[in-house]
Amino acid sequence: MKQALLFLLCTLAISSFAQSPVGIFQYNEDIGHPKKTGTASFDEKVQVYSIAGAGSNIWFNRDEFHYLYNKISGDFIITADFEFSEYMINANAHCKIGWMVRESADEGAASWNAVKHYDGLCLLQWRPFKGMFMRDPEEERFFAKKGKGRQTIQMQRIGNTLTMKMAHPGEPLQLVASEKMEMKTEVLAGIYICSHDSDAMAMAKVWNVRIDKPVMDNYSSNPYAVKRPVSDVLGCRLELLDISDGTRQVIYENKGRFEAPNWMPDGKKILFNQGGSIYTIPVTGGTPDKLNTSTVTGNNNDHAISFDGKMLAISSHREGLPGGGSTVYTLPLSGGEPKLITENTPSYFHGWNPNGKELAITAQRNGENFYNLYKVSLKDGKETALTANKSGHVDGPEYSPDGKYIYYNANVTGTMQIWRMKPDGTGKEQLTFDEYHNWFPHISPDGNLMVFISFPPDIDPDSHPSYKEVMLRVMKLNTPGGPRVVAYLYGGQGTINVGSWSPDSKRIAFVSNSEK
Asked: CA dist 403 to 120, 264, 430, 447, 500, Å?
């Protein structure tokens, strides 16, 4: 009871600043003049929104609710986790939270709402024109747990098509409804809450809030998609993910492209590549520091730290050589002159042997047009083939911490799946079996979990393109059970190409894309 009172006092304390920005949202206000004033706040440390609001309803030809929103033009994808407050007692069954897209702040404006009711009913409802009664498709509904209980809710606007998806924790997003609707180019989009009771206040928390501006390319099957060149470079976010509960924190953002975070051995910094250079940044955020790689300045997103924490392996491009000239080097983790490991190109580093004597790479050799996996001796550069691939694609080899297996991804049957083999290339075993294209397996330092990135079924299984709706999934290695989703994001190439577990096996670092 004391905590509930504290929540109300905290939100009421900012009520006089209801128009002030909150977190990433520029607008914070009541719509429709509800009897009780709504409030919202943002905890920057944990990056969680608290929102409270009243209002008689969001229905018929006018609405009353509290709204946090931005003005957005064109296509977008908006995603967040929503949960009613545990301190709400005897709330109205039709109390609502979710995402709302609206043509104006007028109480009767045309709007499209991804709705989660307190009684567990979830659906897409809309008012196609100002002043009209609200509509919802009776046959398109999703049911969640009544009252407290987390759900991920996503809305997409692609052209004039509005789509709502939802997921229970650990599950892929499911389509709730998709409707073609005429909308203004610029709309309001944000999170909302309505108590469905003029004399009551509803409370909720919202986290993992992401607003993304998609790039549509030839993989898009949506006829209403606004085409933008694939060469468009979106901004990037460096995020840290807590495996236990799926909470995410953005620690660094940049308008340019950066990729492939590794967690430093002391657990205090993250390493990543940008613009051909390697940088480190504190896990608390701040200004990146450039690592000295001497004259090797074409670094790509394939790099990782040796198990003893002393050395760094990198892949860097050399001009005028086959396949773009990607070459593998090693250097001290503190920086210095890189040592050439692979003379032949293209060669992409992916994993250290725990014994510190060998590397696992992906490479093309002997003029072939396909890639295979090799282990390379650090002593003399001798390469030993681990696969004899003649079709499809193999990639991402990474040793387990105990050195017993090499995990990798392979397209053997038409979908990219996760496999493992013994270090000599024998005993190949498929680990994932589903419709997604699964790439880049990374094993936690304690050897218990594997994280990988899952691309949608409608892409080329042999590619891992940028700017896609992807998932990060985690799978237990020592007990039965399939993978569970730990993050939904807009990303792909560069998101998690290399091992990015924290030393304590509790968190993962990754890169997502944004418009910033």
From this structure: 47, 20, 18, 10, 18
